[in-house]
Specification:
- The protein is α/β, with parallel strands linked by helices.
- Helices cover 30% and strands 21% of the residues.
- The chain has 16 helices and 25 strands.
- A hairpin with a 2-residue loop joins strand 21 and strand 22.
- Helix 2 crosses helix 3, helix 6 crosses helix 7 and helix 14 crosses helix 15.
- The radius of gyration is 25 Å and the shape is globular.
- The protein starts with 16 loop residues before the first helix and ends in a 22-residue tail after the last helix.
Length: 625
């Protein structure tokens, strides 16, 4: 593979991602930008920088003709080439696109409508195939009434005034083929303009659209490249959904900014056979690839079951980004050990922390450095204190570092009630400031002010803001602490379960539940509190497939989960519910949505895997004796 030239730093002409694409189309028009893998394996459609630039401009012309410039629209595309073309077309034409998952069930159509209503649009940019499927399967639903489905893959992709000589001059005599649309001649977006609406919800009636500016994307790409440099031989591989912030950044936008080629597969190809991801990393000599923690666990499980496939040399993989919360030490260690024989280095494992409200990345483990882990007292953690203990201590809880900040981003931990900075040995809410913090939530000024422009109690701060300056911060709702300049994430403020004055983190309870029985898949549990009208109940829901349900069976599985929670956390689960695989609601990145689980549990729509049992009295945990 021919090394690509170094990306260079942005200048006034390339201070946005569309500007960077335009520059690459002029300087390196025929180099590969994106390759889409058929069935996650064989190279299929290929886009060069010039082809993508032409296609994006053609779509920008079409969107402008439709009166969408300066407005919002839904982006409803599978993870494929048309999503990339339409996304960049929106950015060129100053259309604030809102990526949404292609519906598979009625609930997904309801989410689509809620997001469209919140974004104030009736325009849905999609493909002919998706539009046909929507009409065939859901055409009678009221949620689709009034929505205009626009087929973006019908747009001709080669504007006539883009046939240029080197240097950008139009060649005399060039004519547009019959039926070709007029080229878009706009100036391109302003850095402060809204590039994207990234929706963080939609599972309830209250979706929130994060307004990410072109400047936000540029700064996040610059910071990420500073943390995990591509160099001249950089190559990306990704299976993550492109409509999700992590998949969009690592699959599309960061490759565009750095100039590195990106090999993309559909998420379903990975889910059906996880080894495809590692095979692609090896085959295409990838240096950068990222995924949530559960994906690494699925690869380890596949290897143990002899399903690792044809995994080859992983020694060129320099950045194995791990951005899911929580990041589990057991997963990092087992993946590194399992794939060390294939050349994978533990120094490649790069845990990080980010969220849509900060564009994505906030912190990350520097390249070529093994992740840091602290072993902390579980008792102290339950009291929001940080107390290191020996790894061999029975009560030791491993907490993995999510790395450091770079360039303009700053992170601190703050008491969420007093708004005073936390000391190093205390857990607080994570607050972020810097150029990657998004502009706010669309149409929600009060919530935006409270979330994106929070202010410290400067009278208690060790280093108060300068006179006349009140620095604002993003309140993340996540909990953690800082130690030696590194961020450690311990949980989420709204997911902390309080019992007898002690804090219990949902992800710790879920890990104990998943470990109770061999054969349970990673990321298969949800722990939450449920109010039955008289008291708060601790509920643990566990997904199991047919094999586990047959042996050890639903009754014994409930008993083992109950015992594991009690043994590891000195806590009694009031109900343990076993459901079939695929029942738990998840985000687009695969995380279990705990609050949605709690809502479904409360209204009785979480169906148990076996015949429903009689209600158990409070405190009995519903466990057979």
């Amino acid at each position: 593979m021919t090394p690509h030239p170094p990306p260079g730093r942005p200048d006034s002409a390339t201070d946005t991602l569309p500007g960077a694409l335009r520059a690459r189309s002029e300087k390196r028009p025929d180099e590969t930008a994106y390759v889409f893998l058929r069935d996650g394996e064989e190279p299929g459609e290929r886009l060069t920088w010039r082809q993508l630039h032409d296609a994006a401009r053609a779509r920008a012309a079409d969107f402008t003709r439709r009166g969408l410039a300066g407005r919002t629209a839904i982006l409803l595309h599978p993870s494929g080439p048309e999503f990339v073309r339409a996304l960049l077309g929106c950015m060129y034409a100053d259309v604030a696109g809102a990526p949404v998952q292609v519906p598979r069930r009625r609930q997904d159509v309801e989410v689509l409508r809620r997001i469209a209503d919140d974004a104030g649009t009736t325009t849905v940019l999609t493909t002919a195939a998706v539009a046909h499927d929507l009409r065939e399967r859901f055409g009678g639903l009221p949620e689709l009434a009034g929505l205009t489905l626009v087929d973006t893959d019908a747009v001709t992709s080669a504007p006539p005034d883009e046939r240029t000589r080197p240097g950008g001059r139009t060649r005399p005599g060039d004519q547009a083929p019959p039926g070709e649309r007029a080229a878009w001649g706009g100036r391109g977006p302003r850095p402060e303009g809204i590039a994207l609406l990234q929706y963080t919800s939609g599972s309830t009636g209250d979706p929130k659209g994060v307004m990410v500016t072109h400047a936000n994307f540029r700064c996040n790409a610059v910071e990420t490249e500073e943390l995990w440099p591509c160099g001249q031989d950089g190559v990306f591989v990704s299976w993550l959904p492109l409509f999700h912030d992590m998949g969009m950044l690592f699959g599309v936008l960061l490759p565009l900014w750095t100039g590195a080629p990106s090999y993309l597969m559909a998420p379903g190809a990975f889910i059906r056979r996880p080894a495809r991801w590692l095979e692609a990393v090896s085959r295409f000599r990838a240096t950068h690839s990222a995924a949530p923690s559960f994906a690494y666990e699925m690869c380890v499980r596949a290897a143990r079951e002899g399903l690792a496939g044809r995994v080859g040399d992983l020694s060129r993989w320099r950045v194995a980004g791990n951005g899911a919360e929580p990041i589990r030490w057991r997963t990092l260690r087992s993946f590194s050990e399992t794939f060390a024989p294939y050349g994978f280095s533990p120094r490649a494992m790069a845990p990080g922390y980010g969220l849509a409200e900060n564009t994505l990345k906030a912190t990350g483990t520097p390249q070529n450095r093994e992740p840091t882990v602290l072993f902390l007292s579980a008792d102290a953690l339950s009291e929001n204190r940080v107390l290191p203990v020996a790894e061999a201590d029975e009560a030791a809880t491993p907490v993995v570092s999510s790395g450091v900040t770079v360039l303009g981003t700053e992170v601190r931990t703050v008491d969420p009630v007093t708004r005073e900075p936390c000391p190093p040995d205390a857990i607080g809410e994570i607050w972020i400031s810097g150029p990657c913090v998004a502009a706010g939530y669309l149409g929600r000024p009060e919530l935006s002010e409270a979330t994106f422009r929070a202010r410290l109690n400067d009278t208690a701060a060790a280093a108060p803001s300068p006179p006349g300056v009140r620095r604002t911060h993003l309140r993340t709702g996540d909990l953690g602490f800082l130690r030696d300049g590194e961020l450690y994430v311990t949980g989420r403020l709204k997911d902390v379960i309080i019992r007898q004055g002690r804090n219990h983190y949902a992800q710790d309870l879920e890990l104990s539940a998943e470990s109770a029985v061999s054969g349970l898949r990673p990321n298969c549990a949800a722990a939450f509190s449920a109010d039955d009208g008289t008291a708060e109940r601790l509920v643990v829901v566990v997904e199991a497939d047919g094999k586990v349900l047959r042996e050890p069976g639903e009754r014994l599985l409930r008993r083992r989960v109950h015992d594991a929670i009690r043994e590891h956390h000195r806590l009694v689960a009031d109900d343990v519910l076993i459901v079939r695989r695929g029942t738990l609601p998840r985000t687009s990145s695969g995380k279990v949505r705990r609050r949605e689980c709690a809502r479904r549990y409360a209204d009785g729509t979480l169906s148990p895997a076996a015949t429903p049992r009689p209600a158990a009295p409070l405190g009995s945990a519903g466990i057979p004796r």
